[in-house]
Amino acid sequence: MIIAERKPVAEILNMIEGASTVLVAGCATCVADCMAGGEREVGILASAMRIALVREGKAVEIIEVTVERQCEREFIERIRELVEKVDVVISTACGIGVQAMAERYRNKPIYPGVNTTFLGLREEEGLWTERCAACGDCTLHLTGGICPVARCSKSLLNGPCGGSREGKCEVSEEIACGWQLIIDRLIELGQLDRLEANIPPKNWATSRDGGPRKVIKKELRDEKRKQS
Ligand code: SF4
Ligand code: SF4
């Protein structure tokens, strides 16, 4: 899922400077799972904003709403009435949701309430860790199902580097060496011989290096055209 963290209240208050009505709009999917921007977090943020604004002697109305998914137009269309009546929207969805809202409501400032951080997994209660960098050319079958792009600090496709010490990365003792994890997993799978094969350089054009990406499903588009 997409992992995010809420921005500091002071940063959000700076964004809404001058507004007299603000909609705090949450998203009930990824950012709710990672406890950054779902209904509960919208309530907490809105309360914190109200308290801070009262302390500053400012009269700002804060309205709360949460939609199922801010990255889908049909869901964000349902809150049109609320969006249209406020000066500013603080979206606690990921960066995709914020942009979907901005595209839908072109005359309305839509500002981010969270920092979209990575694609990750909840390892345990209160701990989310990165798993995928969305490189566009998945090679997990070569690396025991552990991603070298996201989990090696240097994104080495052939590792480990000389900085790996007792299973930890030289970047920080807090970080497990991604390549040590890969080796351990290949041993478990009886596939350690795979380490002998060089993983060829990736074509990074499938990643961000090729500019903004798109996926086109021609058959779906053709079907839609026929229906309309
Ligand atoms: S190889 Fe690429 S697509 Fe596969 S998990 Fe890693 S970053 Fe994600
Ligand atoms: S120590 Fe391991 S995780 Fe860190 S950069 Fe080297 S191979 Fe990657």
Automatic annotation (TrEMBL):
Residue spans of biased composition, Basic and acidic residues class: 217-228
UniProt cross-references to InterPro entries, sorted A to Z: DUF5981
Ranges for region Disordered: 202-228
Pfam families linked to this entry: DUF5981
Top-level lineage group: Bacteria
Domain Methylene-tetrahydrofolate reductase C-terminal-like residue range list: 111-204
Name of the featured protein: Methylene-tetrahydrofolate reductase C-terminal-like domain-containing protein
